[in-house]
Amino acid sequence: MYRALWLLPFCWMLGVAQAHDDDSNDDIARIDHARSHTVPYPPAALERRQEGVGSVECDIAAEGRATRCAPAGASDPVFVQPALLYASEARYLPSLEDGVAKPSHRTIRVVFRLTPVQKRIDLPLFDHWHSHRLVYPKAAIDRDARGSIEAHCTIDVQGVPHDCVATGSDSDLDAAVLTYLNGARYYPAMQNEQPVSATYSAHFSFALANSTRDDGFGN
């Protein structure tokens, strides 16, 4: 049987938002990144290719959850709510006193950064937050189909895709990528602060991590 499935679309990597811990000693509660959700990048900032910072002050309970959070400043108002949402819902490593967890208060800085490609206003951006996930087609899984696909679409000034083309080695995988791209949403390219039609390019890689079939008897 197929024990694992890997699907790697490289086209929609989002801007990176990171919560920075200003102090790493045990006297101050710290975000437990392994148990916290990803920071949502504000769509309005993504559309403008804008980076920034949002700061939040929180009271942290001994069990590692925020009991009260309030905005403490931002480089732009668009970053206030995403930073507040992240800090409020994050899990924390509580501050310690003589090895015992205790309540504390701290300020969290959430830094929003774009990838180098996303900073280019002359290229369309994939709107990952408002688009469906790419699905590995069952027919391709049954045939152990895998491969890489190059795809291109023309994105109009409204962010609508047209004339999408996918070039790969398997028709089922090509069809899955075309369905994905045609049903997605985009931020249009910009020129002189006005949206313009431009080409969006993406690379996809489909692979099954373990394609050994198992009928239950070790065969």
Description of the molecule:
- The protein is mostly beta strands.
- It folds into two domains: 16-113, TolA/TonB C-terminal domain, CATH 3.30.2420; 120-210, TonB (TolA/TonB C-terminal domain, 2-Layer Sandwich).
- The chain is 15% helix and 40% strand.
- It has four helices and 16 strands.
- The chain has helices spanning 43-47, 80-89, 138-142, 171-182, and strands at residues 4-9, 16-20, 30-31, 52-60, 66-74, 92-93, 95-97, 100-102, 104-113, 125-126, 147-155, 161-167, 186-187, 189-191, 194-196, 198-210.
- The strands form six sheets. Strands 1-16-11-12 form a four-stranded antiparallel β-sheet, covered by helices on one side. A four-stranded antiparallel β-sheet has the order 2-9-4-5, with helices on one face. Strands 3-6 form a two-stranded antiparallel ribbon.
- Strand 4 (52-60) and strand 5 (66-74) form a beta hairpin.
- The longest helix is centred in the last third of the chain and has 12 residues, at 171-182.
- It is flat, with a radius of gyration of 22 Å.
- It starts with a strand and ends in a 9-residue tail after the last strand.
